Amino acid sequence: MIRVAFCCHGNICRSTLSQSVFTYMVKKRGLGDQFYIDSFATSTEEIGNPPHRGTVRKLQEVGIPLVPHRSKQITQKDYDSFDYIIGMDEWNMKNLRRMLKEDPEEKIYKFLSFAGSSRDIADPWYTGNFDVTYDDVMEGCHGFLMYLRENGEI
């Protein structure tokens, strides 16, 4: 079982979008039983809140089911439980390394690095543009699946 944790600042926009999109993609490919997929925040600001209405709306628009979720903050216990901890931007990466003892097992990855890019996933909390974020997430998910395939994990 490959355990994947998507992480952003509040766990209501980018990470929940990524969780839902990646869950949909692996199920569509018949790989759902090979994954455990979750999402987390690096902050406490949105703890307990559901996904942002823009995330919900975008998923509905593209026909991808929303994975039911309430925001929660990542912990060291989560670090120990997951194989891949995927941050959305440089700020998330910095916070994840600080929170998770500098990543001694090298589990923390920047999402678009799987697609060969150093770009951040656009944050719709500030831009209001969930279309661009969705495109970034799709690019990251496709790249991550290719990475897993090339490394013989799926």
Summarize the structure.
With 154 residues, the chain is of the alpha/beta class.
Would you write up a description of this structure?
The chain is α/β, with parallel strands linked by helices and 154 residues long. The chain has one domain: Response regulator (Rossmann fold), CATH 3.40.50. The chain contains six helices and four strands. It has helices spanning 14-28, 53-62, 76-81, 90-99, 124-127, 130-150; strands spanning 2-8, 35-41, 84-87, 108-110. It has a four-stranded parallel β-sheet. β3, α4 and β4 form a beta-alpha-beta unit. α1 (14-28) crosses α6. The longest helix has 21 residues, at 130-150. The chain is globular and about 35 Å long. The N and C termini lie close together (10 Å). The model has no long low-confidence stretch (mean pLDDT 97).
The number of E-state strands comes to: 4
Structural class: alpha/beta
Helix content: 40-55%
Biggest sheet record:
4 strands, parallel
Task: Measure the end-to-end span.
Answer: 10 Å
Average pLDDT reading: 97
Q: H/E series, N to C? A: EHEHHEHEHH
Uncertain residue ranges = none
Q: What name goes with the CATH superfamily? A: Response regulator
What percent of residues are in strands?
5-15%
Question: Can you tell me the CATH architecture?
Answer: 3-Layer(aba) Sandwich
Q: Can you list the strand order of the major beta sheet?
A: 2-1-3-4
* Fold-level CATH name: Rossmann fold
Given the structure, what is the number of helices? Answer: 6
* Net shape: globular
CATH class: Alpha Beta
Overall number of structural domains: 1
Radius of gyration: 14 Å
